Amino acid sequence: MKCYFHGRQYEHDDSRSGLVSFAIPDLGVFYRVRQEGTTLELEYKSLVALLQFLKTNEQLISYREFDIHGDSIATVFQLAGRLPTPSEILVFHRKIHRFRKSLRFNVSWLPSALNRAAHGIPYLPPINLSLRFDFTPSKENSVTGVHPFTQISAKL
Fold it and tell me: Most CB atoms within 10 A, among 39, 45, 53, 124?
């Protein structure tokens, strides 16, 4: 199943606020929230949020392998071990690798223009699903112990 993640800082904003989003088009899931952080931190936070969502809802999702796409070359290369990971990002990096124990996924790069999580929601026909997704993580997967999409931080 294809999934997408995206994080970015707001342009023309002097604060560290930005956007964390992920999309799972086959399930009709598109999530977006404001967060604090650098662009790289926001990219990692969006991937952690996506993985938390998949783990929390694994009983509802029949797919067992996920193709996860992001438009940050740095994030994808750092996760693959092809670029060094900055120390301030290591906590997120490790968290993502811990998800590999329970989820089967690979992370790859695609251009921003093709990233479904990076843009507005296009008109799509309704998807007839009777699934009731849970956006609350299990305690073992929570980064902060609070709702993952309202506050994702480096604290474990």
Answer: 45
